[in-house]
Amino acid sequence: MGSGTGIGRVRGLGSARHGSMHWWRQRVTAVGNLLLATWFVVSLFRLPSYEHAAIVQWIGSPIVAVPLILMTISVFYHLRLGLQVIMEDYVHEEAGKVIFVLLLNFYAIAGAALAIFSILKIAFGGVPA
Amino acid sequence: MSRNPGRPLSPHLTIWKWGPHMVVSILHRATGAGMAIAAGLGFIWWLVAAASGPEAYATFLMVATSWFGYLLAIGLTWAFFQHMFSALRHFVMDVGAGYELKTNKMGAVATMIGAVVVTLAIWGPILFRLAGGAK
């Protein structure tokens, strides 16, 4: 064990003790998903029309846009945590694990950003219906 | 070395048989990963297309209402409910309940039956209407 750099001091000491936080956030976002995704799926099946104008009008309403944004955050956070565990379990080389988790973070953050920006653009009237 | 076959074996990695609890466990991961990619990308595409205008949205709608789109939607509906029911079972086990062998097995089987039943209940009438409309 080194005594100089920070990484030298912690290398080989085991986990960073962030596991319980990961576990807890998985549960918190799971409850968020349970409420928000159920609302979303039920609403989706009940929509009278899936045409562009109808969808833009639906998403533009505050009581739809806000839960939709919250669901996006909850779902993409949850899938980031879940897929990370899967990668940690099944990707055995350290380098591959780092690359996969890096790509996962990019996917989750970029995906959520694209979705939220699109919802906001529609909600703020940026899309002519 | 002789061994009395009546005596219990110690747990061994290569000696096991499939049980409902294992199926539900791997289904939870498979449906989670499947939704994370397929439903995740579909959700992003749907919103970006809607925000981009009627033409981009028309392309999305064309794919979404093709036979492949319906097949994917039915599969994702099942995955959604399988993952959800399995998660509810996880919440119960998180508080330390439901570990008795019989209860655990029944819970595992219930998630699988529930997911298929709900998927059929949702898509049965839709597909029936679509088939009727096509005639």
Give a structural overview.
The complex is a heterodimer of chains A (129) and B (135). With 129 residues, chain A is mainly alpha-helical. Chain A is elongated and about 65 Å long. Chain A has helices at residues 6-10, 19-46, 52-60, 62-90, 94-123. Chain A has a single domain (18-123), classed as Fumarate reductase/succinate dehydrogenase, transmembrane subunit (3 helical TM bundles of succinate and fumarate reductases). Chain B has 135 residues and is mainly alpha-helical. Chain B has one domain: 3 helical TM bundles of succinate and fumarate reductases (Up-down Bundle), CATH 1.20.1300.10. In chain B, helix 1 (20-52) packs across helix 3 (67-94), helix 1 (20-52) packs across helix 4 (101-134) and helix 3 packs antiparallel against helix 4. Chain B is elongated and about 75 Å long. Chain B starts with 19 loop residues before the first helix and ends with a helix. At the A-B interface, helix 2, helix 3, helix 4 and helix 5 of A face helix 1, helix 2 and helix 3 of B.
Tell me briefly what this model is.
Chain A is mainly α. In chain A, 78% of the residues lie in helices and 0% in strands. Chain A has one domain: Fumarate reductase/succinate dehydrogenase, transmembrane subunit (3 helical TM bundles of succinate and fumarate reductases), CATH 1.20.1300.10.
